[in-house]
UniProtKB/TrEMBL annotation:
The chain crosses the membrane at residues 30-46. Keywords: Endonuclease, Hydrolase, Membrane, Nuclease, Transmembrane, Transmembrane helix. GO terms for biological process: DNA restriction-modification system. This is Restriction endonuclease. The keyword Transmembrane applies. GO terms for molecular function: DNA binding; restriction endodeoxyribonuclease activity. It comes from Methylobacterium aquaticum. Residues 143-243 form the Restriction endonuclease type IV Mrr domain.
Amino acid sequence: MRRTSSLADRLFWPILVGGAASLWFGPKALGVAGLVALVLVLHRLGRGGRFRRRVRAIARHHRETLALRRRQESYVDPYGNEILDGWLRERSYFADRTVLPRLEAEGYGDLIAARYDEILDIVEAASLSVVLPDEDDAAPTDGIAYERFCATLLERAGWDARTTRAAGDQGADVVAERDGVRLVVQCKRYAKPVGNGAVQEVVAARSYWNADHAAVVSNAGFTRAARKLAAATDVLLLHHDALPDIET
């Protein structure tokens, strides 16, 4: 992390040089040094505002993606509570991987620890600043209908997608092909995050269907265990919103 000089560091040389120069050139030199010191103080006092503006600019640049990720990583439980655990992890990930490195590179590293909560608040505000199109209310609650819904979204993206028979699907609800690439998908319309059992099943389905890629699609996010297993087995974890833009 780049070290940012303190205000005392910045003032030391103007005052020292100005004091020495005043011995030779009189009070005018000391006045110039004082003016330089004043400019440095004012610049330093405005640093917090510049820090906030920089964070806002970074978050604003990604606000559409943040808004979408907030929706994808949140869900309402059977009791009507909005569960934001997945979004809070995503928000911290964005702050740590996108915002903080830029702040450090621009000389604000010394402010990060004390203002981390402020960074998160700014990211949160950016995620809420975008009015997304209404979430597709056509997404059915019935499991079989949800599988067909996911297949339709893949077809819109140019895939030749079909649902499998409930019996003998070996963990694949949808099989899709495009440009010689085969994708197997397990679809979970849940009221809670999907666990790693779904990941295990779609890994088996990838082998059974001789597919190139595997994905689990849900409306409700994924547990930490599911994410860990998916990363280890190269399985995509997706909200159904992401299906039209899927790339493999």
